[in-house]
Amino acid sequence: MEQAATSSNSSSFEDLTKDNEVENMQKDETFMDILGNGQLTKKVLIKGKPDTRPERLWICVINLKEELENTGELIEEYNDFIFQLSDQEVVQGLDMAIALMDIGEKAVIRCESRFAYGSIGLASKNIPPEATILYTVELLSAHLETDLEKKSYESRKEIGNKKRERGNYFFERQEFNAAIQLYRRALEYLDESEGGIKYPTGEEEEPTNAQLQNLLEDRIKTYNNLAQAQMKIKAYETALKSIDTVLQCQPNNVKALYRKGKILEAKSDVTQAINFLRKAATLDPDNKTVQNELSKLILKSKREARNEKDLYQKMLGQAQKLETKAQQKKSTNSTNPSSPNRLKLWSYTLGSILVSVAAIAIYRYKYGA
């Protein structure tokens, strides 16, 4: 009894201590529980200039130290790290917390896994699954991004490819919606239709053919990646538009031809899918992936044709049986003059219905309607 009472008192004391800690944190003006659930917090070490918080899509410059909370192990450290706020260039927790910092502020940001590297971690940084990360961040500066049409060729290329590579990061993590968003953002910089490239070198010079070709190649990579991510979420119509954009520029792009074939297959247009895969196989005969997919689709097409033929024959056979029965009834009802005509009409009508049903069944089988 005495031991149980001691244990109960100890438990009550621990609960009271935790409650006091939470209450003290809430009173601490330097501490912020951003979401109110303890999963994302900010502790100010040095206050910044009041009312200078950065806004969405501003360019921020920070000093950053990243550590594992449970071991204190240093993951990475950056000085003068540049990123665009709220554009998924850093983990979600940092995006949310830095938006609440003033310029000159230094803070410790604690991100549980949901707002950092999630349930899979990040092997390349030796970050385990479900890891809580501590970030020591100093916001050095923040400013509105310059207008896109005023950016130089080099700047557009650098920023666009940075966002494309970040999209690749999310694609590898199978976070396809985030990847799609980054690829689209990349295209805003790489696609010259968005305002054009007026000052590609900062000296009001026209871009050279080589520079434009380089930008085109980067743009095509991005559209190809965008289509692949859209295919992953089964957004086949938008994926088809992305691929068609590539093929308008490069009709013999093997990767785009292959992906268009896969999209058309997913849309149950096997015949057209075979045509595009056949073209890709002709352009790159050593590509085993294309060859295997083409062989698979040709077999599928033959199997579908055989099934359609069997279904037609089965339904037409049933129609012929009904007509035979009608003829037999005709002979037994010869005393009724109007009966043969009614039976004949009925047999034709029923036969037509069966043929129509067969056609609908084949359409549904073929196109998955």
From TrEMBL:
GO biological process terms on file: negative regulation of apoptotic process
What class does this enzyme belong to in the EC scheme? isomerase
Ranges occupied by TPR repeats? 220-253, 254-287
**Which intervals hold domain PPIase FKBP-type?**
62-143
Give the source's domain of life in one word: Eukaryota
Please list the reactions this protein catalyses.
[protein]-peptidylproline (omega=180) = [protein]-peptidylproline (omega=0)
Q: Which GO terms describe its molecular function?
A: peptidyl-prolyl cis-trans isomerase activity; protein folding chaperone
One cellular component GO annotation, for this chain's record?
A: cytosol
Output the InterPro entries linked to this UniProt entry.
Answer: FKBP4/5/8-like, PPIase_dom_sf, PPIase_FKBP_dom, TPR-like_helical_dom_sf, TPR_rpt
Q: Please verify whether the record's keywords include Repeat.
A: yes
Q: State which residue ranges cross the membrane.
A: 345-365
Q: Which UniProt keywords apply?
A: Coiled coil, Isomerase, Membrane, Repeat, Rotamase, TPR repeat, Transmembrane, Transmembrane helix
Q: Which residues form a coiled coil?
A: 302-332
Pfam families noted in UniProt: FKBP_C, TPR_8
Q: Which Enzyme Commission number(s) are listed?
A: 5.2.1.8
> How is this protein named in the record?
peptidylprolyl isomerase
Q: Which organism is it from?
A: Chironomus riparius
